[in-house]
Amino acid sequence: MRLRLVLPLATVALAAVLPAQASAGVASIDGVGGCSETSIASAVANAGSGDTIYVKPGTYVIDDLVIADDITLISSNASCDTPTVKQVAFVGNNIRRMFTVSGAFVQFKDLTIRDNNVALNGPLLEISYGSVALYNVDVRGGVGSAGGCVVMFGGAGLTLLDGSSISYCEATNGGGVYVDEGTILAMAGTSIHHNAASADGGGLYLNYGDTYLYGDLTDNSAGSDGGGLYAHGRPIFENPPSSTTSIIQVSGGDVSRNTVEGNGGGIYFDRPGSTLTVKSGASIEDNAATNGGGMMLVRGTTNLSGQATVAGNDASGNGGAIWAGPAFTALSLTGDDVGDIQIRANTAGGHGGGLAAHTPHVETDLVTFIDNVATDTGGGVYAADPWSLAGTLDFRNTRFLRNEAKHGGGLLADDVTVEISSDFDTCDSPTLAKDRFCTEFRKNVTDPTLGAGGGLAVRAGGSVTVEGASFFQNTGDRGLAVAVAGSGSSVLVRNSLVWDHATGTSALWAESSADLDVRASTLVDNGVPADWDTGTTGAFHRNIVLDNSGTLGAGGISGDCNLLDLGTAPTGSNNAFLASGAPPQFETTNARSQWMPTTTSAAIDACGAGPAVDIDGTSRAQGADYDRGAFERP
Predict the structure, then answer these.
(1) What confidence score (pLDDT) does residue 385 get?
(2) Contact status, residue 404 vs residue 353, Cβ threshold 8 Å
């Protein structure tokens, strides 16, 4: 005999909604006996664990229906014995909530749950200590305080499958979904879209629990923070959650076209001890905010991996793509191959068109910052550490291409320590196209009348080491490749190629009181290759400086073992000078680079010391001694 549940149901009489269906019944249990159940409430009350309720085509008003057994509700044909696709709609009637799932696993299939449209305190669907799976289900048109469409408590679970969507809902927090404690899994082809929160979390508000987004989070909006997703742990008082950490994964879906008046257009992440991961194939695109157009990272750990993309986002303030704050634990961007992760075409009204990093805890590998724009500084990246936090920003195998800002077109480092390098374990430089490199500052732009540091700008006590990079065709007013300014600021350029910067302007430039060291590098085809203002310090060792239209301004700078155009010597020893008519020094037809020294070049085996590898990771020394310049001749 089937167990009948006695539940506090307040179901609107079906006759008021569909008079023609009331006498014939509206549902069956397990497709047996025709449409014998007279209401959805009676079908739920009579169903036992594991049963399926087949619902006759129609529109049914649901009023605070509690489900406490593991059942399935599915759209069926007129005989209530065969599934159909979206012939059933459950609607609200200006009530506190429509469905409450309490401690059960409930499946909804091929139907619609919609339109409560009253600003009370509940959503269309409340999941309390239970879980729900939606198969090809549209949940839309709810209004609530926390969670316009769905609210989840007590470790609840929600899974979206087969094209399901949550849309056009409104709430104070969590316009689409509010998770007090629970887990959401949105599979590929599903979406949370066009929801709105007057405060936080336009699409999704997460207190505690895990979120796995294989589907899309799009076109949501919020009045405060987190246009798409807001993740923030509430204070733990008398009812602590089972876990105070969260895992949030965006795995192949889009977080796009979300907007917020405050911060974090796509994602606002403030979860100490928790991790946000954006995996290969996922994209954070076309979102807008005051700060952190794509993502606002306040506390926690964030990893971008594989072929993730953050593109087309806009911040009226700082961090067009990403804003990472001083309390942030770590930000890691790691691709699988050169340029896999794209931070592309983002804009900022202030600093950091691509990334505004107010923390030293940033690492990148196989990443490209391309076509980002900042109205103020740091077109690709703005890195600043005014709080003097311990740590170093580490940019490995990272390309800065065609970014634009007033100063620091590619990257601006302000009172922070930065290391820029090529890691040849993950980037096989010799396999790249001719004259392309693992780490590049290429065609970045600063203001042509006052802009400093077309590729890289360092100021206010910042300290930057550049190892194994190419600087090519960057533009601006001073220091087209690299500019360093301010007392205590310093830059070391080593194993690097600086080439093809404009006539009449310095490629490398150091302002008074700053320090610029250039070692084992090649400076060719520039205007002024490098220039130190009076009062600067620095060193210039084991470099090649040839075929530039201007003169090296290294008077008073220590410099040993350089190969130089005649009349461009720094103060030092073992410098070689090439007069007009000297044999060619570069093998222009070389498949790897037109700036590879010839076998007879004066650069070969010229120095008694040098770095361990060259710009391509080739071991030094290959011959009796170390070669001058960025390349060690094999």
Answers:
(1) 81
(2) yes
Main-chain dihedrals φ then ψ at residue 434, nearest 5 degrees: -55, 130
pLDDT in tens, 500-543: 998 878 999 999 899 999 999 999 999 999 999 988 899 999 99
Asked if pLDDT for residue 397 goes beyond 50, the answer is yes
* b/e map 498-512, b = 16+ CB within 10 Å: bbbbbeebbbbbbbe
Per-residue pLDDT band for 12 (boundaries 50, 70, 90) equals very low
Q: How far lies 505's CA from each of 28, 452, 473, 527, in Å?
A: 83, 11, 12, 5
Q: Quick count: other Cβ atoms within 10 Å of Cβ 454? A: 37
Per-residue pLDDT, averaged over 53-67, amounts to: 94
Residue type, 185: L
CA distances from 523 to 300, 482, 499, 530 (A): 42, 12, 6, 8
Q: Is the peptide bond before 621 cis (omega within 30 degrees of 0)?
A: yes
Q: What span, in angstroms and rounded, lies between the C-alpha atoms of 135 and 159?
A: 9
pLDDT tens digits, residue range 128-145?
A: 999 999 999 999 999 888
- For the question of whether the overall pTM of this predicted structure is more than 0.85, the answer is yes
41 alpha carbon, distance to own chain's centre? 46
Q: What is the DSSP string of 18-87?
A: -HHHHTT-SEEETTEEEEEESSHHHHHHH--TT-EEEE-SEEEE--SEEE-S--EEEEB-TTSSSB-SS-
